[in-house]
Amino acid sequence: MTKQRILVAGGAGFIGSHVCDALISSGRSVICLDDLSTGTIENIRHLLANPRFEFVEGDVTSPRRIDCDTILNFACAASPVTYQKDPIHTLRVNFEGTRHLLDLAKTNKALFIQASTSEVYGDPEVHPQVEPYRGSVNTTGPRSCYDEGKRVAEALCHAYAETAGVEVKIVRIFNTYGPRMSIHDGRVIPEFIVNALTGNALRVNGTGEQTRSFCYISDMVAGILATMEAPTAFRGPVNIGNPSEMSIVSLATAIVALTGSRSPIEFSKALTDDPARRCPDIGLAISRLNWAGPLVGLKDGLQRTIEHFSMTLSSSSWDMSF
Ligand code: UDP
């Protein structure tokens, strides 16, 4: 049965706001909870007048009562640059925040969908990454606040499902990109596009031979909604992403070509614990979910994203001094 009143924590963020759009388009009511730390009102402004949409400004580390029958939890900064700024807060958002939302799901008898991440696999020894692989994560490195935070959030979901009867589903999101990413985001695609468009150097960390597999936002949203709509017995975790893998240096070259930029590509020191390879095995998602898989290719997706950043940069409101 279709759930009707959906709480989207982190709903003003990049992925969260696109999920809010899709839920509103499909006739649901949405309560968007966001502390606007990385999300923005701009991402949801077009929804504010909709009677089926409500915005609540707040942080998930405080408990709150919200009437809903489904909860999607996207609340957490996702860019390494951002989540490393305040690692204790990142851990609190993932532990305390997820716990409060799971308590709310228990009280409301709501379905709970956790936005987990490919980062639970750390710097993986298994390639491509399959869900049963348990990962290779440094507990005391610069990424540990996010990686271990997301891992404990999965453990919380599992514990609430086993002991408190909460219906949970866990989706492991791989690198996603598209319109509404911030020019200050810090992740590789926004960083490269903004620098290419402004004539600055694209800075590749390390050799650039490390790989990622980039999924366009509309394909990701379709996968998340398919997870939400999967039969009750399907708890996951399930990988959602695009298995088309590429090196970071070839991404830089592609973005320079697509923007027609004269920006140089420069190399700097490798980051500590930067995963060498990442690629989702999406076999489980394809076989168990009503999801078509990725439909938008990299060139098409990058062109749409370049358009978004060109518009943002040419509008008067942007400020690179942030
Ligand atoms: N990266 C880079 N230059 C940048 C930003 C990122 O070379 O300006 C690299 C980064 O070191 C990593 C990859 O691009 O190998 C993806 O980084 P991102 O921050 O997008 O996310 P991650 O997948 O590491 O969480």
Automatic annotation (TrEMBL):
Cellular component GO terms held in the UniProt record: cytoplasm
Localisation per UniProt entry: Golgi apparatus membrane; Golgi apparatus, Golgi stack membrane
Membrane topology, as annotated: Single-pass type II membrane protein
CDD domains named in the record: UGD_SDR_e (cd05230)
GO molecular function: NAD+ binding; UDP-glucuronate decarboxylase activity
Source organism superkingdom: Bacteria
Cofactors (names): NAD(+)
Alphabetized UniProt keyword annotations: Decarboxylase, Glycoprotein, Golgi apparatus, Lyase, Membrane, NAD, Signal-anchor, Transmembrane, Transmembrane helix
GO BP field: D-xylose metabolic process
Domain spans labelled NAD-dependent epimerase/dehydratase: 6-241
Protein name per the record: SDR family oxidoreductase
Organism: Trinickia fusca
